[in-house]
Amino acid sequence: MVVSLPTFDLNQTQANDDSRLTDKHGRAITDLRVSVTDRCNYKCVYCRTGNDGAQYAELPIADYLRIVRIFVDLGIEKVRLTGGEPLLRKGLPDLIRELAKLKTVDGESLDLALTTNGHLLADMAQTLKDAGLTRVTVSMDAVDPDIFARITRVPGSFDRVRAGIRAAQRVGLGPVKVNCVLLRGFNEDQIAPFARFARDEDVIVRFIEFMPLEEDRLWTPESVIPVRELLNRLSTFRPVVPLRANTLSETAQRYTFDDGIGEIGIIAPVSQAFCGHCSRIRLTSDGKIRTCLFSQFDHDLYGRMLRGATDDEVATFIRSTVERKEARHHIGEPDFLKPSRSMVHIGG
């Protein structure tokens, strides 16, 4: 079934000036992460409690479209659709199809990506590509099926995720990135196998430090596998060689192996924070702006829309919210407070 969405005159809605979103620290905000659902078919130990019965929040697809369109008019160049698990969201291809029509303020095509756990990807990859999706990132925290099942708490799912990665490559949703959250006691022994996986499957594997965003509150400093240990474990497979960053705001430190085959990324927000060049803003599935993963506050954009805010009023609210974006997070400092919402309710 095709969802009926409102049509917009794209020439009318493009920004008339070159005043881009910038926070009070001088950082240009060009990347928007949009959670289209906080439902998920996995219960990963570093994210969910494993309990059922949660209440879910989702906006109508047309409202996500309106919000993203306004953000793009303000200078957003990259949009990543997240969740929860975004492939569970009804009408997702319709949203992608409309978003793919948008142009940046420079007249360029929008960089439109999606992060998924991959469980449903094999069946949907061609549809997503045809709708206009640019590329996909798959969250996958082990290459050993038993360890994978222990982390996701969904037995027998590894083969489906691997099939989803291969389907995404086959239809042209690449380069496919595979994100692995490292959690001591669960998957540190998967680092070297992931190095081989990156080369064998021709994917970019990115290791992400475990952050204090989980519902079960398992996080401790000792649960984090720091960069030096990670590099040492990679080197047991083959020596690694650093690569130049693609952009100043890139979150991953890039590496290849000594023979130039394969790419590994390391995202280390805990031990080597990259806040100084942050270009991101987030929209939760219930329509609230998060200026940082570790914010203590939400900014209720959708509430204003429900009260009849015009596009200009929504844009003014976005600007004022972005201007107050935090300078950095405070993980590891004595006064650090875990954020008011867990990752699944913020958007990955």
From TrEMBL:
GO molecular function: 4 iron, 4 sulfur cluster binding; cyclic pyranopterin monophosphate synthase activity; GTP 3',8'-cyclase activity; GTP binding; metal ion binding; S-adenosyl-L-methionine binding
Binding site for [4Fe-4S] cluster 2: 275, 278, 292
Coiled-coil regions, chain positions: none
Binding-site positions, S-adenosyl-L-methionine: 46, 84, 139, 211
Gene3D superfamilies for this protein: Aldolase class I
Needed cofactors: [4Fe-4S] cluster
Residues given in the record as GTP binding sites: 33, 80, 115, 177, 280-282
InterPro entries listed in its UniProt record: Aldolase_TIM, Elp3/MiaA/NifB-like_rSAM, MoaA, MoaA-like, MoaA_twitch, MoCo_biosynth_MoaA/MoaC, rSAM, rSAM_sf
EC number: 4.1.99.22
Family: Belongs to the radical SAM superfamily. MoaA family.
Full protein name: GTP 3',8-cyclase
Gene name per UniProt: moaA
